[in-house]
């Protein structure tokens, strides 16, 4: 466990070429940008909370009340799984390009699968069967081409397999909010990244709904989802989304929503990660407990990467002032936006 904690604290995000990173690594203080950051960091926090009860039968009563680590992967408190690793690959690509670049995104996911990039444990673990199948297909596809295309064809049978109705397309979705200027654009982007691994119609339906929910929540339009308490069962993407909506409906704070989701057990990590996206978009970054934000592995790096992704797509003059993100209380430095 001590070794895992050391890895968590010291492992850097994969390096980017010099000169490619946006210069501004600060974050907006209020409004939609704060809620977008809330959705992204909420995903990571939810993943780290839920991993404790991953693959655990649903408890008769809530047993989890904090971010404690452990679970089937023996993670330290604040450790996260494949949900966050894939989200970080997507987020890093958005921060670099300022748009979706399918070939670059897939390349980053392959680096995670092959070498443990975007994993605080140095290894790829908890990868889903369908995600592995899709990445195996993309590895062969990209090896036959000199340069990865910005838009990749996604009609291959390997991407639309019966198992492609799982959670992979929604567990990592929040970063596309950085690019979405409208609800229709959010849906198109959410579907596009989903198709890279999960092209089944049920997975796409869930990605469409989650994209819509996240965009509306990030614009301050909270709603009641009227989702019933989920029954114990093997969860596909639509089941996971409905359970996450129930957890948000049944609570009035980010912390309570994520714990309600995690205490459902079974696929608790992904369920809490999806819940964290919705609750984070509703309550904003400031609504996520500071001690949880500080505890997640790579906390500072992830916060700054999220900010870079938001800033990479921010129109000049649209974000006049920002605050350096800090997951723990302390002085904050206001910085003017680049012109």
Protein topology:
Layout: H1 2-10, E1 27-28, H2 32-50, H3 82-97, H4 102-115, H5 129-143, H6 168-171, H7 183-195, H8 201-218, H9 237-249, H10 254-262, H11 268-283, H12 290-295, H13 299-312, E2 321-323, E3 334-336
Antiparallel strand pairs: 1-2, 2-3
Helix pairs in contact: 2-10, 2-11, 2-13, 3-4, 3-13, 4-5, 7-8, 8-11, 9-10, 9-11, 10-11
Strand content: under 5%
Category from helices, strands and their pairing? mainly alpha
CATH level 1 class label: Mainly Alpha
What is the alpha-carbon Rg in Å?
18 Å
What is the CATH superfamily label? ADP-ribosylation/Crystallin J1
SSE sequence, one letter per element: HEHHHHHHHHHHHHEE
Can you tell me the overall shape? globular
* Structure annotation, total helices: 13
Averaged pLDDT, please?
86
Number of strand segments: 3
End-to-end Cα distance: 46 Å
Number of discrete domains: 1
Major β-sheet profile: 3 strands, antiparallel
Q: Percent range for helical residues?
A: 40-55%
Could you say what the CATH topology is called? ADP-ribosylglycohydrolase fold
User: Low-confidence parts, pLDDT < 50 over ≥5 residues?
Assistant: 1-12, 15-29, 320-325, 328-339
């Amino acid at each position: 466990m001590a070794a895992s904690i050391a890895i968590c604290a010291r492992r850097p995000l994969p390096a980017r070429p010099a000169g490619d990173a946006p210069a501004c690594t600060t974050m907006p203080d209020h409004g939609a940008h704060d809620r977008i950051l809330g959705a992204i960091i909420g995903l990571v926090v939810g993943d780290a909370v839920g991993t404790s009860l991953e693959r655990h039968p649903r408890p008769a009563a809530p047993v989890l009340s904090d971010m404690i680590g452990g679970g089937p992967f023996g993670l330290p408190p604040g450790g996260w799984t494949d949900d966050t690793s894939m989200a970080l690959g997507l987020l890093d690509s958005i921060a670099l390009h300022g748009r979706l670049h399918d070939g670059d995104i897939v390349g980053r996911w392959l680096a995670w699968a092959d070498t443990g990039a975007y994993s605080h444990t140095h290894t790829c673990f908890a990868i889903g069967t369908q995600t592995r199948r899709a990445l195996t297909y993309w590895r062969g596809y990209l090896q036959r081409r000199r340069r990865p295309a910005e838009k990749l064809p996604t009609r291959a049978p390997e991407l639309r397999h019966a198992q492609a109705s799982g959670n992979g397309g929604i567990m990592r979705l929040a970063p596309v909010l950085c690019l979405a200027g409208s609800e229709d654009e959010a849906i198109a982007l959410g579907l596009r990244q989903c198709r890279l691994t999960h092209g089944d119609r049920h997975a796409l339906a869930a990605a469409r709904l989650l994209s819509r929910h996240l965009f509306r929540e990030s614009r301050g339009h909270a709603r009641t989802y009227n989702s019933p308490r989920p029954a114990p069962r093997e969860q596909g993407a639509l089941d996971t989304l409905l359970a996450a909506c129930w957890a948000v409906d049944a609570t009035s704070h980010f912390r309570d929503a994520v714990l309600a989701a995690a205490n459902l057990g079974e696929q608790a990590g992904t369920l809490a990660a999806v819940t964290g996206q919705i609750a984070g978009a509703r309550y904003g970054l400031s609504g996520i407990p500071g001690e949880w934000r500080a505890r997640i592995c790579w906390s500072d790096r992830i916060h700054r990467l999220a900010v870079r992704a938001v800033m990479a797509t921010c129109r000049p003059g649209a974000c006049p002032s920002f605050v350096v993100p800090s997951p723990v209380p302390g002085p904050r430095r206001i910085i003017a936006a680049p012109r």
